[in-house]
Amino acid sequence: MSPARKKGGHRPKRRLIADAAEPEPQKPWQIRFIESVIDTDAHDIGNAAMEIALKAIDKKLKIDPLQYGDRLHRPLHPLFKLRSRDVRIVYRVEEETRQVFILAIGNRRDIWDDEVAILKRKATLEDTLSVEFQDDVSVSPRTRHKGEDR
Questions:
Q1: Omega of the bond prior to 141 within 30 degrees of 0, cis?
Q2: Domains of the chain, CATH where assigned
Q3: Whole-structure pTM value
Q4: Residues whose CB falls within 8 Å of the CB of residue 57, separated by 6 or more in sequence, listed in order
Q5: ω before 78 within 30° of 0 (cis)?
Q6: How crowded is the C-beta side of 28, counted as CA atoms within 13 Å?
Q7: N or C end of the chain: smaller count of CB under 10 Å?
Q8: Burial code of 58-68, b = ≥16 C-beta within 10 A, e = fewer?
């Protein structure tokens, strides 16, 4: 008996490659921009910086926004930031719907100067999401009780 095998032991069964279940690919993350990013931020940072931001969003946030971004602390929690050269991208992740909401794009030096504006955008997005959620919930018709008119 070889020293590597124990008495009465047996070799483990080999798994066939066909038996190994491959995980299903998850649907890609959907990127959504709030209006002020398109109206204000794009104009403020210029075309070159916006191109850098869009490439970073396409390469990183569409793949895994939780892995590539850094969580922000209060009062900006649960937002994330993504750094790409001199550009910062502030976004929110909705894991249930696999959506990424871009809240702000700006130069690394001055994006945090107006934290109040980012907080307003965050509040507006949260209001919008709560309304969308309420619209998605199906309401069953009210049952009538005895004595109620139609």
A1: no
A2: 30-131 (3.30.2310.20)
A3: 0.71
A4: 31, 82, 89, 102
A5: yes
A6: 10
A7: C
A8: eebbeeebeeb
